[in-house]
Predict the 3D structure of the following.
Amino acid sequence: MIYITRKEHFNAAHKLYNPKWSDEKNNEVFGKCSNPNWHGHNYNLYVTVKGSVNSDTGYSVNLKELSLIIRTYVTDKLDHKNLNLDVPFMQGLMPSTENVAIAIWKELLPYINALDCQLHSIKLYETENNYVEYFGGE
Amino acid sequence: MIYITRKEHFNAAHKLYNPKWSDEKNNEVFGKCSNPNWHGHNYNLYVTVKGSVNSDTGYSVNLKELSLIIRTYVTDKLDHKNLNLDVPFMQGLMPSTENVAIAIWKELLPYINALDCQLHSIKLYETENNYVEYFGGE
Amino acid sequence: MIYITRKEHFNAAHKLYNPKWSDEKNNEVFGKCSNPNWHGHNYNLYVTVKGSVNSDTGYSVNLKELSLIIRTYVTDKLDHKNLNLDVPFMQGLMPSTENVAIAIWKELLPYINALDCQLHSIKLYETENNYVEYFGGE
Amino acid sequence: MIYITRKEHFNAAHKLYNPKWSDEKNNEVFGKCSNPNWHGHNYNLYVTVKGSVNSDTGYSVNLKELSLIIRTYVTDKLDHKNLNLDVPFMQGLMPSTENVAIAIWKELLPYINALDCQLHSIKLYETENNYVEYFGGE
Amino acid sequence: MIYITRKEHFNAAHKLYNPKWSDEKNNEVFGKCSNPNWHGHNYNLYVTVKGSVNSDTGYSVNLKELSLIIRTYVTDKLDHKNLNLDVPFMQGLMPSTENVAIAIWKELLPYINALDCQLHSIKLYETENNYVEYFGGE
Amino acid sequence: MIYITRKEHFNAAHKLYNPKWSDEKNNEVFGKCSNPNWHGHNYNLYVTVKGSVNSDTGYSVNLKELSLIIRTYVTDKLDHKNLNLDVPFMQGLMPSTENVAIAIWKELLPYINALDCQLHSIKLYETENNYVEYFGGE
């Protein structure tokens, strides 16, 4: 069993704002992240899959295929978008780094399962100082 | 004469869209950067000043002071903001990396001139693959 | 369950020197790290906590709070200090990267436990080529 | 128990080409990586060992010794070499990142076992966008 | 006048070997870089152009166009290639970082001149510790 | 004419303290950098030389020689040292980044002049947020 990781990236706008709360409460909890006119980030995404090594190729997964899956089903849908408004698989979700990572896991899982390997983790950097890692499960 | 540089950063939303043009023309020129619902970046800003070395301090400029000037007059006004909507010194400007860098130069110049050194350059990274550098002048 | 990480940093002096040993033995074991007049590093600290996602905020932990805890109880006490002489929670400890990481874990644990999440790991870079990771326990 | 990591690097040429297959099949599977005249990479290698902290040194392992072992038995044999042609411990192996990482694990294991710690993982970056991690076992 | 830079990359094999010299002389001058079976690098290329800012776009150059030019005429011809054997515009040149940078300048110059800006510099990293910068001229 | 740069590094302790001043004045000017028990940094040093390309080697300078000069005359004398106490060529100088960069220029100049190239600049990073660049002269 070996773990292999592909890095992709996307640049997006978002805001953290709970419509059930007052502006004051939103500002208290989310601070400047609740700016009504949005802000944005260069996100770096690391997708890790695990599998055994194929003796003909030396590959656990073909990274060209993995990269194409990530770009087609995830980063092409997030890049240069508004995470609150533009992304079907983020509808109704607060676009915190945690929720974006979990949504990416759910989008990728069926496509990774169709390959001869398993999805191990989604690591998502919002800035170079903040990142989350999700391994599936509740 | 020695050159000293301070790095600061800000995270902001923007779009590149010329209201004099049709959506098609905007999309042709700016591509996905013209998304009406915005996108965003983690910007890295490098401010370089030049001066002579003070024999009592070994400093050409006190970086605590330089950092405070950059944050007070520039990055605090850009961070977690929308560059098209929220920033007084960007009003009426297309928020391309070029125009943001030039606007930062203009904001900083009087404050740097009040120190015992000269503003040499503004280097602004929009992504790790794209940056501009401005040295003043036309 | 999701894992979230905050990066902070501090710049400090230290030396590795065991007073029970001769200078020769110290030099043999610690090499140039035993220089009696100290040397120093820019340390990068990554604190990872795990928790579930709050449905109102999308947060597993509020990173503003986590960052404030790390700075107040750890990095403000280490930054621009001598790890052998100046830091109450390092007294009597050889300031190896291992021991600094373990001491940071012990300092942070009660404050993280008071949040609605668990401390998962302390990752401490002494240089870009050397780092330790501690997950608690003996 | 604490985990400590040492980074080393090497620059090497390789190609991915299965001699049992036609050129067309090789190109289909490996793409431009099958270029008959080779290509190459700057590889970054992270070796992680785990152990307990020695109370006299504060060390779990002496990184000077660990670095010397990695360079002597691994990176000196890979640096400025052709991974298909020049490396005794890669003979007969497709030099995919997976296989290079596993081969490095096998080379290092007896030397790490002779220290007072255990080999935990080999993390090998082929590019900044692609890396594998191996923890031993089948 | 403003300077704008686009980063691209390529991975290639090469060796430094002067056929007019003996193996001993080649080894004396080029060391392990003269390995007959090649070695390789992940090269990072920074192309800087200068121009004035267009008031309709805020651009000095359209980076999509600049990137396409660099990839079409330079990096697509270098990526996953052997710099001694595979690259028409490197024929007869020792593939030192200096000569690769100068050859890239010559390839790009007519295409940049056809844009409304000037080629300012080619910066080429062979490793993170070694890079050259070329500004044209003799 | 081409410019080539070699990166080296050193880890050192220092403090910024002017003995002609009171502790209060030192704290006012230098802040936490005046901590009497020292602090330290991982310094990154970039030495740039310029020259023409030798047609036999493709080199403007042999980087093995340049690296050896930098390490022998500069970084071996700074690494794991106290910049206020241990370094002959820093005696009597406030070890600000500016003064360390200028002192390195003076140490290297005769050795670079003995090669077939010219010293162009010394760029010294104290942290990833602060660096100075010196081109010689007053």
In short: Chain C has a mean pLDDT of 97. The beta strands of chain C are 2-14, 39-51, 81-82, 118-127, 130-134. The longest helix of chain C spans residues 97-113.
